[in-house]
Amino acid sequence: MGVTWDERRRQPAAFGWRRRRWRVRRVLERWVVETGWWSETTRVSRSYWRVEAEGRVLELCYDRLAKRWTLERILS
Q1: Which residue, 28, 46, 27, is CA-closest to 36?
Q2: Is residue 12 within 8 Å of 49, Cβ to Cβ?
Q3: Please, is 12 exposed, middle or buried when counting C-beta atoms within 10 Å of its C-beta (0-12, 13-18, 19+)?
Q4: pTM for this one?
Q5: What does the H/E/C string look like for 10-73?
Q6: Is residue 14 a contact partner of residue 20, using CB atoms and an 8 Å limit?
Q7: Parallel, antiparallel, or unpaired: how do β-strands 56-63 and 68-74 relate?
Q8: What CA–CA distance (Å, rounded) separates 19 from 7?
């Protein structure tokens, strides 16, 4: 999944999903999940953004270890 990053605001600006580009209108919430930091095999480091885009609410996830974006959840 491709995400355009807004460097100035330090948040996603747009993302590709279902063969189209979705512009992030606003970030509703942001949080970080860090677990297993004591072990490389069980470590998790992810940043989540709940965003409003094109009238929908979705959750984007950036896996900091894999350096990969995913669409985690569609809320509306």
Answers
A1: 46
A2: yes
A3: buried
A4: 0.88
A5: CEEEEEEECCEEEEEEEEEEEEEEEECCCCCCCCEEEEEEEEEECCEEEEEEEECCCCEEEEEE
A6: no
A7: antiparallel
A8: 24
Residue 64 is predicted with a pLDDT of 94
Helix (H, G, I), strand (E, B) or coil at 4: strand
- pLDDT tens for 26-73 read 999 999 999 987 887 889 999 999 999 999 999 999 999 999 999 999
Return d(Cα 72, Cα 48) in angstroms, integer. Answer: 9
Identify the pLDDT of residue 45.
95
User: Which residue matches tokens 């940043």?
Assistant: 47
- Sorting pLDDT into bands at 50, 70 and 90, what band is 20? very high
